[in-house]
TrEMBL record:
It comes from the Eukaryota. It comes from Mytilus coruscus (Sea mussel). Residues 9-154 form the UspA domain. This is UspA domain-containing protein.
């Protein structure tokens, strides 16, 4: 039988979407315990997606501007998350972490491993099979590559 008084480290993948906000809300209202350490992880993705197609030749200034825009968006998302936290009146520890990396799926899985997460929670946009196959799915990647339980919230 599991010891329910043991501290859990829970990673919530946050991308600024309403789905990730709903996942945070669900966790805080339904699963959260005062002894939990909660880490809200936002991955600032820097790669071909930021500037269009990987096949498109681009001016270095366009690439630099796209990276700056992603950084700004990441900062705004993390600031928004920090302002939301007081409404949950948690007794545990909640931190917001901004990770700069490549693809969000592998970056979130790595961040969870590095902090010793007990669980990962992620929102899902509910892409259909074809769109998920073409575009990829962060939640699908995390579900299949994480070494800890994953809760996907719709």
């Amino acid at each position: 039988m599991a010891d329910s008084s043991r501290k859990r480290v829970v990673v919530l993948a946050m991308d600024g979407s309403k789905e990730s906000d709903n996942a945070l809300d669900f966790y805080m209202k339904s699963i959260y315990k005062d002894i939990d350490e909660v880490i809200l992880v936002h991955c600032v993705q820097q790669g071909p997606h930021s500037v269009g197609s990987i096949w498109m030749p681009l001016d270095p200034h366009v690439i630099a501007r796209a990276i700056q825009d992603e950084e700004k968006k990441g900062t705004e998302i993390c600031t928004k998350l920090k302002t939301l936290l007081p409404i949950y009146k948690s007794g545990g520890r909640i931190t917001v972490t901004r990770v700069v990396g490549g693809e969000p799926g592998p970056t979130i899985v790595q961040a969870a491993e590095e902090c010793g997460a007990s669980m990962i929670i992620v929102g899902s946009r509910g892409l259909g099979t074809i769109r998920r196959t073409i575009l990829g799915s962060v939640s699908d990647y995390i579900l299949h590559h994480a070494r800890v339980p994953v809760l996907v919230c719709r």
